[in-house]
Amino acid sequence: MAVDAEIELPTIEFRSSDLKRGTEGWNRLCKRVREACETFGCFDVVYKKISTKIREDAFELLKELVEVPVERKQKNTSPLPYHGWVGPCEQVSVLYEGFGVGDASNYDSVKSFAQLMWPNGHPRFTETIHTLTTQMEELNKLIWLMLTDSYGLREDSLKMNYTTLVRMMKYLAPPPGEYERGLFAHTDKPVSTLICEDKISGLEIEVSDGQWIKLTNLSPSSFVFMVGDPLKAWSNGRLKSVNHRVMMSGDKDRYSIAAFVIPNEGTIIKAPKELIDDQHPQLFKEFDFMDFFLYAFSDPAKHIDNGQLLYSYASLSPPVSH
Ligand SMILES: O=C(O)CCC(=O)C(=O)O
Ligand SMILES: [Fe+2]
């Protein structure tokens, strides 16, 4: 499974001057974003509106968080899959540790999390993670708007009530000279994801069968936008939900923070009718997000290739044109 350095993931800078909807700059950005999501299922967005200072602060606080005693980490639980603390283990990876903060653009949720981790709470943690999440949520909204604009759809074609789950992750450096799995290959089950990392690379995407590229040289203002399975279903298969993993080498630990879009209970994922026609028959039945999410992390799903779960859950065969 070679890592191919020839293919490069598109880097798209969102300059403030291009963010005015309807301008030529905006339309150009929309087209590039859509092409990147259709071809790669992800791209590197350079977004300087989120200050490097807030990111640095967040990573510094993450480094503080991983030092809290394990009894407190274990209090970070949730009835929802992928929402709580996961320590190093065989199923995920012995190098991986991740914390989950649900509804993290809500100040009180972050505050409750901080109170679980530190007996006296941690106002600076709460403030920083809440602010960073709010800004990442804005960036995600902007990208969704670019996608609907580029397909000539109304803004509300991709609108739902959701909360943002933030996961704060640490990957240990592998034993000297080794190249080891930090996170198994998967496609994202939330609607979409934004990831930022602290200097050390490790994220890899599968550009074609068995051909992986490592995302390197991400700038201090870079976020990786990732199309999740439900967004692929919404687009009637136009957008790709890319298989990705984290592989660790070298002698430095890696830290990353990801913001995931988790629709509220009862949200139905369905492609807008404009994206379904004779050339593009409907590929997936409409489905309840939470049912799919729970299915994707259930025991029966463990026997199915992660990238195939959307198909096993929702594919219409044969596809239906309206
Ligand atoms: O840590 C990363 O860069 C990626 C994490 C990831 O893919 C995930 O949590 O779904
Ligand atoms: Fe992921």
Descriptive overview:
There is one protein chain. The chain has helices at about 25-40, 50-65, 70-75, 105-115, 125-150, 230-235, 290-295, 310-315; strands at about 10-15, 40-45, 95-100, 160-170, 180-185, 190-195, 205-210, 210-215, 220-225, 245-250, 255-265, 270, 280-285, 285-290, 315-320. Helix 2 (about 50-65) crosses helix 5 and helix 4 crosses helix 5. The strands form four sheets. The protein has a seven-stranded mixed beta sheet with strand order 1-2-9-6-11-4-3. A four-stranded antiparallel beta sheet has the order 5-10-7-8, with no helix packed on it. It has a two-stranded antiparallel sheet with strand order 12-14. It has one domain (about 10-315): Jelly Rolls, CATH 2.60.120.330. It has about 325 residues and is an alpha+beta fold. The model has no long low-confidence stretch (mean pLDDT about 95). The structure holds 2-oxoglutaric acid and fe (ii) ion. 2-oxoglutaric acid binds near residues 197 and 246. Belongs to the iron/ascorbate-dependent oxidoreductase family. This is Probable 2-oxoglutarate-dependent dioxygenase AOP1. Keywords: Dioxygenase, Iron, Metal-binding, Oxidoreductase. InterPro entries: DIOX_N (IPR026992), IPNS-like_FE2OG_OXY (IPR044861), IPNS-like_sf (IPR027443), Iron_ascorbate_oxido_reductase (IPR050231), Oxoglu/Fe-dep_dioxygenase_dom (IPR005123).
